[in-house]
Amino acid sequence: MSTKEKESIQLLQGTLDLIVLRTLATMGPQHAYQIATRLLQISNRLLNLNQGTLYPALVRLEQYGWIKGTWGKTESNREAKFYEITKAGQKALGEETRAWRRISALVERLLLEESWP
Amino acid sequence: MKHLRRIFLRFYLLFANAKVEAELAREIDAHLALLEDEYLRQGMSPEDARRAARLAYGGVEQAKQLHRDERAFQGLGQILQDTRYTFRQLRKSPGFTLTAILMLALGIGATTAIFSIVEGVLLHPLPFPHPGRLVIVGDVLEGSHCASCAQSSVTVPDIRNYMRDTQSFSHLGGYRQRLFELSGTGSPAAVNATRMSGEVFAALGVPPLLGRTFTQQEDEEQQQVAVLSYGMWRSRFHGDPNILGSKILLYRKPYTVIGVMPRDFEFPLNPGHVNQSELWLPLSLQPEEFTAGSAASWNSRMVGRLKPGITAEQAQSDAERVARETMRDYPAYMRSFRIHAVVTPLQEDTVAQARPLVRTLFFAVIVVLLIACANLAGLLLVRAIRRRREIAMRLALGARAATLLRQAIVESMVLSVAGGAIGLALAAVTLRLGVSLLPQTLPRVNEIGLDWPVMLFALGLALLTGLLCGLAPAFAAIRTSVNEALKEGGRTGTSGGGHARLRSALVVAEIAVALTLLTASGLLLRSFEKMRDVKLGFRPDNTLAALYVLPQQQYRTQSAIDEFTKTLLNHLGQLPGVEAVGITSFLPAAGNSWGISFTIEGYVPPKGAGLNMAAMSLLEGNPFEALGIRVLRGRVFTESDNAGSQLVAVVNRKMAERYWPGQDPIGKRLRRGLPETSTPWMTVVGEVDDVKLGSPDAETIPQVYQPVTQAVASEGVFASVGELSATNGWIVVRSRMAPEQMEDTLRAIVRKIDPQLPLYQLQTMEQAISKGEAPRRFVTVLISSFAIAAVLLSVLGIYGVIAFSVALREQEMAVRMALGCQRSGVILLILSSGARLAAVGCGLGLLGAAASSHLLRSFLFQVNPFDPRVLALSAIAMMLLALAASALPARRASSTDSVLALRGE
Question: So what's the pLDDT on residue A3?
Answer without folding.
Answer: 39
